[in-house]
Amino acid sequence: MSAAQILARGLGKDFGGRKAMNNIDLALGGGLVTVLGPNGAGKTTLLRCLATVLKPDTGSLLIDGLDPVHESDRIEIRRRLGYLPQEPGLAGSAKVFDLVDYMAVLKDHTEDRRRRHLVFDALERVGLADRCTDKVSDLSGGMRQRLGVAQALVGSPTLLLLDEPAAGLDPDERFRLREIVAERRHRTTVVQSTHLTEEAAISDIVLVMAGGEITFDGTPAALAQIATGRAWVQADQPVGVRASWRQPDGTYRCLGTPPVGATLVEPTLEDGYLLLSSVVPA
What we know:
By secondary structure, the chain is of the alpha/beta class. The protein folds into three domains: about 1-80 and about 155-220, P-loop containing nucleotide triphosphate hydrolases (Rossmann fold); about 90-155; about 225-275, no CATH class. Helices cover about 30% and strands about 25% of the residues. The protein has nine helices and 13 strands. The protein has a six-stranded mixed beta sheet, sandwiched between helices. Strands 11-12-10-13 form a four-stranded antiparallel beta sheet, with no helix packed on it. Helix 3 (about 95-105) runs parallel beside helix 5 and helix 4 packs across helix 5 (about 140-155). The protein is globular. The N and C termini lie far apart (about 45 Å). The relative contact order is 0.15.
């Protein structure tokens, strides 16, 4: 199967009168898409709707032309889906292999020998093949997160949804995760959520969410360009600048409206995101 095609129009979701997601339009097919935004922006709500765990209150959603409103379509979508929720909720008494094997069964991989191969392959990819007989309770926090990734990867899904996948991972584990995602992006639609700008830099497309809405949809380079002419360095500590930090060489990097004669610098994705998110006045 080829990468999943996602088409969403006007998706909305309320919780107790609070709009967690409002009028979301998406047209995705292949590549790595990162949903970037602060906590409470609506990222998890969006991924839960794409994963068919949560039903939107408004709008329509099609995945490969299948409508999750219909049970038969929803079951077929889940066979093609790999999903890592923000809190996987792994049973501590279960064995590592058994948890991934159970997920493979749910995805309708019923032939024993092939399914075992798929399970070991997923565990190998996340560096847990040597822990397959261990109990989940014996794993570190980072290992449990990698186990959740293995569950999502098993069976080569055409749609891979990862909610804050780098949470709790050390630098080596994050690098391994980036390798896995980069390898999948050419034949899978990968949608990951994060509040870390460095995780968005490797994406094909970045969606910035705030207040339940998408405020930016474009490439990482285009997000960085928002800060063109708005990032500069100066020797003295800035006054009246809301976003600035001291660099190792003692100079200050600043964002906002530069003073006359300021030394402008090449903007980064983080610069563009901070300006877009109104952390810095426009």
